[in-house]
Design a protein that fits this description.
The protein is of the alpha/beta class and about 300 residues long. About 40% of the residues lie in helices and about 15% in strands. Bound molecules: phosphoric acid mono(formamide)ester and norvaline (NVA). Keywords: Cytoplasm, Transferase.
């Protein structure tokens, strides 16, 4: 079963193949054949979404397939039906399931019980679809990401975790600056080190961004987080002109969005010439089309 659950569970050559296919889909190649004609994708959301929701639906339709949009609160799940039963029942009707969950364990249980491929549309632990779009976007603007230097300044959250996995799988250098109380999971850091990943963690954003090709951040308060003291902890990690000035002169700024101008990033940076945020959003659709194509390739046609 070709689940797309996390970047560290998929061979790096497959991830590269998906990125290359996303580039061809962006050019319009292969769409006239409607490669997913007759296939149905279910999208389940436990949390809000703009990009993931619309880019999956638009992408599936461009491939000739169809989509059923499900809010988890409308399903019998909300009344206590088990995830296992839900997974088996949905597998009778659809060819693929994408789910955005509050807890990673929910996604894992869904995948363990589904008889069709399951795609991670964001959990509290990771956001692999976003990273596929981000690698594609970086490469469009800066060339191959291999050996490039990416800097993260902010919360050690689900996006930071996926950047760590991507650093190993796509072989780039990743400098992470985050507050001591908001570090990425030690298990993940250990995994990256064990794989020979060039992932370096500190608490000083100015050290992290030195000579970086890209500076990346994310919201201070992710969905499901409680903002007890996050605004205070993260204030010095804001990406602004002063921080960007320490990166390479031709560096780019990236953010998965939604962004909060004046908090995680200054308006000057996100709306300035170095920003790739709308390119990332656009490439969500093409990279997910390639993910869907890969997930469904064994059952296609
Ligand atoms: N970046 C991202 O996943 O955005 P949404 O929450 O709008 O889907
Ligand atoms: N870290 C953010 C990403 C949103 C796309 C969140 O989980 O809310």
């Amino acid at each position: 079963m070709r689940h797309f659950l996390d970047l560290n569970q998929i061979d790096s050559s497959v991830l590269r193949e998906i990125i290359e296919r996303a580039k061809t889909f962006k050019l319009g190649d292969g769409l006239a054949e409607r490669p997913l004609d007759g296939k149905i994708l279910a999208l389940i959301f436990e949390k809000p979404s703009t990009r993931t929701r619309v880019s999956f639906e638009a992408g599936m339709k461009r491939l000739g397939g169809e989509v059923i949009m499900l809010n988890s609160s409308d399903l019998q799940l909300a009344r206590g039906e088990t995830l296992s039963d839900t997974a088996k029942v949905l597998s009778c009707y659809v060819d693929c399931i994408m789910m955005r969950t509050l807890l990673e364990s929910t996604l894992v249980e869904l995948a363990e019980n589904a008889n069709v491929p399951v795609i991670n549309g964001l959990t509290n632990r990771s956001h692999p679809c976003q990273l596929m779009a981000d690698v594609m976007t970086f490469e469009e603007h800066c060339g191959p990401i291999k050996d490039k230097v990416i800097a993260w300044s902010g919360d050690g959250n689900n996006m930071a975790a996926s950047w760590i996995q991507a650093a190993v799988q796509f072989d780039f250098v990743l400098h992470i600056a985050c507050p001591p109380d908001l570090m990425p999971s030690q298990t993940l850091i250990d995994w990256a080190k064990c794989k020979g990943g060039r992932v370096y963690i500190n608490h000083d954003p100015f050290i992290a961004v030195a000579d970086a090709d890209a500076v990346v951040t994310d919201t201070w308060v992710s969905m499901g987080d409680v903002d007890s003291n996050r605004h205070n902890l993260l204030a010095t990690y804001r990406v602004d002109d002063a921080l960007m000035a320490k990166a390479k002169p031709n560096s780019v700024f990236m953010h998965c969005m939604p962004a909060n101008r004046g908090k995680d990033v200054s308006a000057e940076v996100i709306d300035g010439p170095q920003s790739l945020v709308f390119n990332e959003a656009e490439n969500r659709m093409y990279s997910q089309m390639a993910i869907l194509y890969w997930c469904l390739s064994e059952t296609r046609g």
